[in-house]
Amino acid sequence: MITAEEFDEIFDRGEEDIIQYLDLKSMRRVNQEPQRVNIDFPKWVVKRLDEESQLLGVSRQALVKLWIAERLEKV
To answer: pLDDT of 25-51, one tens digit each?
Structure first.
């Protein structure tokens, strides 16, 4: 085990692989934790989502998340 200061020094030098000092099992990406959101759609929208998700072979939820993420990247 090393201190935070020692880790920072090793990282700043860039001469040594720091992966050995990381606990990869507890790592999380910042702002990537899921948060549940409920959205009500008209029946026709749900029907179209189901049709499209079936064509693509993904779940309705995966399709909605993908489409929203793509749209937000364009903003």
So the answer is: 888 888 888 889 999 999 999 999 999
